[in-house]
Amino acid sequence: MTKILVIEDEPDMRYGLEHNLRFEGYDVYLAEDGAQGLEVARKVSPDLILLDIMLPGMSGMEVLERLRKSKSGVPIILVTAKSQEMDKIIGLETGADDYVTKPFSVKELLARISAVLRRFSVEDDIGVYEFGDIKLDFTNLEAKKGGKPIELTHREFEMMKLFIKTKGEIISRNVLLDKVWGYDGDVQPTTRTVDTHIAKLRKKIEDSTENPRWIITAHRVGYRFMG
Hints:
Blueprint: E1 3-7, H1 11-23, E2 27-31, H2 34-44, E3 48-52, H3 60-69, E4 76-81, H4 85-94, E5 98-102, H5 106-119, E6 128-131, E7 134-137, E8 142-145, E9 148-150, H6 154-165, E10 170-172, H7 173-181, H8 191-205, E11 215-218, E12 222-225
Parallel strand pairs: 1-2, 1-3, 3-4, 4-5
Antiparallel strand pairs: 6-7, 7-8, 8-9, 10-12, 11-12
Helix pairs in contact: 2-3, 4-8, 6-7, 7-8
């Protein structure tokens, strides 16, 4: 059963989400603040986290940053207010996978959860792919460089999947945003979102980030994978 962790300080919202998610067949865990959310995430290893930005004490943004710094690749959907547009953008660039804006319908939320889980499904027809000293196992979400494990996030695996399927072709930033992030909301992330994630990915797979061999920049357009 798919496990969803809800980190939300408003009791009515928290238990309303629990009721609707359980009705849809999800295994739901609850946390009322950031510190508790991090502890529950560590214990249960959820498949997805619904994370409110405005939390008492430790903010949702800090929770997001701590999860990503700990190398957690769990998909995260931010729950925001309409006035938090900049937080949405920063959150997406920091490593969130999507967002919903209060007030939202249950139907919208369930659709976004389904879309994010579908994007991060471990099922993949590529299986294992190797280039240079890099080995990517898409079935088990494992990566190695020079025979040593490296930590790729779910999104980095999704980026590599798209690059491999379009090897040699120039992929624009907008295509990457559409295929990997899948945004269709009212706040579109900037192209810096893609550039930031590419920079992080290069640090993990390239021998030299200043002279990359595998992910080549196509000036003013996007990127090309040469693996």
